[in-house]
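Note on ligand handling. Small-molecule inputs were canonicalized before submission; formal charges were left as drawn, and no protonation-state enumeration was performed. Where a ligand contained multiple stereocentres, the stereochemistry in the source SMILES was retained. For flavin mononucleotide, this procedure yielded the string shown in the input block below.
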Amino acid sequence: MSKHLLIVYHTQSGTTSRMAEAVIRGARDPAIDGVEVRVRSALDADADDLLWADGFILGTPENFGYMSGAMKYFLDRTFYACENRVNGRPFALFVRAGNDGTGAINSMRRILTGLAVKEVQEPILFAGEFDESRLVECEELGLTMAAGLEAGIF
Ligand SMILES: Cc1cc2nc3c(=O)[nH]c(=O)nc-3n(C[C@H](O)[C@H](O)[C@H](O)COP(=O)(O)O)c2cc1C
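Structure output:
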């Protein structure tokens, strides 16, 4: 039976989506055939997506020292519908920021702690000038999450 991996992200000017593309590429590595990957924008994703997922990855820019409004809107709309129904499920984060990013990471972690889900990889944070050479880290994040779900190690 396939495991389910959900990737939800938001982008405004496009750089977080470049990170997301690499995460998705890693998650859909042809060597992994036991994981179904579903990709949603933060504005479209809903509680059914989160309940479907055996694990998930969230990506956002940092805006005003916080996650993007769209990512917050996703968590606002899903929190109570998913509370106590996703306990222990693994997740990971990726963040794009102009110069910081810690506010986005901390704000997402705080809400996700309330959902009792389990962070299984360090966040990937791209701050400052966009560094193409680091996209491989995003790919590895997606691959590791998919491989871990397939192997049942999370
Ligand atoms: C309204 C707004 C607020 C922002 N606030 C922050 C911030 O608090 N900290 C930071 O490091 N970058 C901040 N940035 C920079 C964005 O994080 C950065 O431009 C990022 O690349 C945007 O991602 P995107 O290309 O996926 O939209 C802000 C950008 C905008 C448009």
